[in-house]
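Reply to dn_fold:

You asked what the input looked like. This is it:
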Amino acid sequence: MGSRARKPRITSSLTSTIEVIMPKEAARILEEDNDTNRPLHPNVVKNYSIEMRQQQWSVNGESIKFYADGGLADGQHRLAACVETGIPLETVVIRGLERDDFHTIDQGLRRGPSDILGLMGHKNTGTLGSALRWIWILEEPKGRMNQKFSASHIRAGIEENPEAVDSVNKIRNWSRMGTKVLGQHGLAAGMHYHLSQIDSADAEEYMYRVVTGLRITRDDEPEQAVRRRLQRYGRGGEKARASVLVEIIIRGWNARRQNRTLRKVMIPSTAYNDLPTAV
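and this is what came back:
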């Protein structure tokens, strides 16, 4: 006779409520009740603070958790953002966890951009998510390059920039033509959208040439110089951060807009920290 399966433990003492935690109370919890959590990650607190200041925070089921003895089990970064911003935090609060359950908290996989966009009914979600992230970064490169692109940013991004879907479709179609030098379709789509806000027709022609290599007639055209530089990375001879690829595309665009010939795209050392402005 086989052994009987052990029944799951039922914890009847758990309570769940929606509460508003004031900044003063959040500070007290962090000071007096936070004895088992890992050290705070400043970037996480910063990203939560940005969402709270931009009123992108919502009660979505994520909770602040407390042990039965009153200790904080989970939620220190959200509480720290509440303190930093001075904005009350409305959230689900769960009380009554056992200390032995600490190692099981927060094991679920978070939904990424592709998951969120898929749930919203979009296709090519990986490319679209990357495009939306670059559109967001290029609005404010210095402040956003190293910030987290959160779920609220994804939702706001597609609502504010629905034409990004068209940019993705165009880049995917163009990548099947000519000789490919830029494999990062999301980055290319983000650039197409960003440059289209300056001049839609010119951005269409420029990115078509960069992606396909077609309709280029001279060796000193900016698009050809951009393709040569991108090709060095595409063939694996060199590795570059995505920001450098963006730098190359913007420098070629600026040369085109200024009616300059260009044989070589020069990347100054500052490219690793700052992006030029597209004109």
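Strands lie at 15-21, 63-67, 72-74, 89-97.
Hope that clears it up.
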